[in-house]
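Human: Cast an eye over this sequence-structure pair and say how the chain folds.
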Amino acid sequence: MRLFWKVFLTLLAVLLLTALASLWLAQHWQLEQRVLDEKVEVLRHQGETAVDIFTSQQPKEFHRWLKQSSRRHQVMGALFSADGMPVVSRPWPHEWKPLLERLQRGETSIRLLQAPMLIWAGRLTAEDGSSWLWIASTPLPPSLIKQSRQQRLLLFVLTALLAMVIASLLVGRIMTRPIAQLRHITNQLGHGHLDARVPASLAGRGDELGELARDFDSMAEKIAALLSAHKQLLRDISHELRSPLARIQIALELARGQGDAGNEDELQRINKEADRINELIEEVLTLSRFDQGMMPLEKQTLSLEALLQSVCEDLQFEATRQECHIEYFSTASLSIAGDERWILRAIENIARNALRHSPQGSSITVSLSQQQELSIAYACIRIADEGPGIDQDKLVHVFEPFYRAAEGRERSSGGYGLGLAIARQVVLAHGGSIAARNRTNQGLELTLLLPLPA
């Protein structure tokens, strides 16, 4: 069924139920009003009879009629003169006094519903023109006593609200649940989980949301195929380049062996560029293996403090040429289970990237601390420089392969653009996370979170 018809029929059903409930309540009120009008008419008629008997016969006859009326019609009444004096000396309910006062002030008809009694008070005129006050009460039928009008109104309002709430929940479930599922799968796809697909329960729906889910799966499959083809192309090119590159290096060695000193500078330049190409190919293949989950990790207990101190000592040696200073801080002695080769490679990539973008005479800060997130303990490594930082809209791309924050492709702008991408894959392979942010004053800070052993 189409989504439009699901929402339309749900709302229509609620409106019909509300209309039926309104019709039932209106009919019930009309019936109640008819019964009350009939009772009031009986009380009025009894009052008119009382006035006629009292003004035309003896008081004893009136007293006898009053008793008979009480037994026959279940009516208890009292007749008063215009100034409020009872014509018969007999007890009458004290709650009638306010009604008597209202009649004396000029009101002509008062109806009061006090379950289980209906009370009517009115001003009546005898045939001789004299004015009399009549107050009487009669018991109500049990059907009118069970629920008051206010209670029935409250019941109707609650029923209508309950129907609206149920309808809202149904419409909300029809609309928001599949949208939330799509949003969740979209986030997974956006975070690199290319195998994320819509649940079969959603993709099998026959409405517009089901069509959207199937289109999403088709899109995800095409994206995964394109990215896979892209990665495969990089792997194939890298593998194919290795053979001619090896032949070039062999040819260089043969040329050097001929002893022609005049060409040594050119040969040295060619060898240097060949080494760079070989290094780039190796990084592409490394990134590809991590992407495919084919990189074996030889995990062992690693002291992060010793590892970071070693990295800082090597980095300080390189930083001397830029007159930069490396500062290392540690608040905890932490160890993780990891592959020393790749953890060291990831940290060195990030540290050298910080040094590459640090101005002369600045400082690079490396720190180690423990951090708790969702009841999981992490080793937190922060590496911060005092460089120009990165535009906020470009931060999300710094871990993408071949991405450069600078517009130019020159080496001085940031190596091959693979160092941070490899660092991210290493951290993810160890169950951690990595993030970049601009510092408040100046510079870029990268944070690595690596899970500590339980």
The CA atoms of residues 21 and 156 lie 7 Å apart.
